[in-house]
From TrEMBL:
Origin species: Chelydra serpentina
PANTHER family registered for this protein in UniProt: SER/THR PROTEIN KINASE-TRB, TRIBBLES HOMOLOG 3
Any one Gene Ontology molecular-function term assigned to this protein's record: mitogen-activated protein kinase kinase binding
Keyword annotations of the record: Protein kinase inhibitor
Database matches in Pfam families: Pkinase (PF00069)
Name recorded for this polypeptide: Tribbles pseudokinase 3
Sequence ranges of Acidic residues compositional bias: 342-353
SUPFAM superfamilies assigned: Protein kinase-like (PK-like)
Domain (Protein kinase): residue spans on this chain: 66-313
Length: 353
């Protein structure tokens, strides 16, 4: 059935288009995930394999066309597609959102100026039920890269982590809290795997003022901060993002999450205690930065902007014997950990606090 498509109001630098097309993907299947925290069963949270899209089999035999774009294989249960522009043959990544949730989902983009480490929206097309948002494609994500490499040398990790911190600092400076930060959120944009972008702001929220207090609990269990698990009231959204960056950095350098357990209750207990081990093989500056991010008390963590001033990033991850003070309660925790990381895929879960 042919639909009359209206041009939706989008913020610069988005490219708008008025087109007629078949609004094919189901709006319920394309509803983005909004994870909340609580117990789940089975494999280690964040490491469970992604479920196969229920609509993938049906759609393999047909081509979906949205305006000038051809949508190829679906991902994330029909919420994301690989897309190709019919005329230029340029490849894109297409995110599909229910039309009713589009304004809230895309609001953070209206408050961000362009940044080299935050993915930019190329075009938005609206149908009666769904909105199709097109991004430049990535060349693999950091989760897959670290899983394949097991762990990253400090020089490489420093160059990549600086770009992650730049993206988060840019968002925080503009009142955007990311809430669901993790390795998979960062995509490579070059074949050499040296340049990263934050894939999207799908789970982000926009602050209405200088107060960054949040009460809703979003996130992937392995990356969630102890204050979110322990507090029944509000918590600092910026400090929670910094904790997640700490988990990201630890995993890049060590090759495993700082807090792991197959039982969710035990995993959350470990996170609440905030006790973790760091291999002796890491440089003192690297160990220092990890500790400055994974501090149990949110107010004691570095801010995203302060991360960029840390000596480890300033030295480009170069080895050094310089020491850095430990936060209280973390002395004597350095231990060699196995050079392994689960081969399971990372996944968000719907959880209850």
């Amino acid at each position: 059935m042919s639909l009359n498509v209206q041009v939706i109001p989008v913020v610069s630098p988005l490219r708008k288009k008025r087109l007629d097309f078949e609004d094919t993907p189901d709006s319920e299947a394309s509803k983005p995930k909004r994870p909340r925290l609580g117990p789940v069963s089975g494999l280690t949270p964040c490491l469970q394999p992604l479920a196969q899209s229920p609509c993938a089999v049906d759609q393999d035999s047909r081509v979906l066309q949205i305006g000038p774009y051809i949508l190829l294989e679906p991902r994330e249960e029909g919420h994301s597609y690989r897309a190709v522009h019919r005329h230029t043959e340029t490849e894109y990544s297409c995110k599909v959102y229910p039309a009713r949730s589009y304004p809230e989902t895309m609001a953070p983009y209206g408050h961000l100026s362009p940044h080299p480490n935050v993915a930019q929206v190329a075009e938005v097309i609206q149908g009666d039920q769904n909105v199709y948002v097109f991004f430049q494609p990535g060349r693999g994500d950091m989760h897959s890269h670290v899983r394949r490499r097991k762990r990253l040398p400090e020089r490489e990790a420093a160059g990549l982590f600086r770009q992650m911190a730049e993206a988060v600092a840019h968002c925080h400076n503009h009142g955007v809290i990311l809430r669901d930060l993790k390795l998979r959120k960062f995509l490579f944009v070059d074949s050499e795997r040296t340049r990263l972008v934050l894939e999207n702001l799908e789970d982000a929220c926009l602050l209405s003022g200088p107060d960054d207090s949040l009460s809703d609990k979003h996130g992937c269990p392995a990356y969630v901060g102890p204050e979110i698990l322990s507090s029944k009231h509000s918590y600092s959204g910026k400090a929670a993002d910094v904790w997640s960056l700490g988990v990201v950095l630890y995993t890049m350098l060590v090759g495993r999450y700082p807090f792991q357990d197959t039982e969710p209750a035990m995993l959350f207990s470990k996170i609440r205690r905030g006790v973790f081990s760091i291999p002796d093989g890491l440089s003192p500056k690297a160990r220092c930065l990890v500790r400055c991010l994974l501090r149990k008390t949110p107010s004691e963590r570095l801010t995203a902007r302060e991360i960029l001033l840390h000596p480890w990033l300033a030295s480009g991850g170069a080895a050094s014997e310089d020491t850095c003070p430990n936060p209280s309660g973390e002395q004597g925790l350095e231990q060699v950990v196995p050079d392994t990381w689960s081969q399971e895929e990372e996944e968000e879960e719907d959880l209850h606090s």
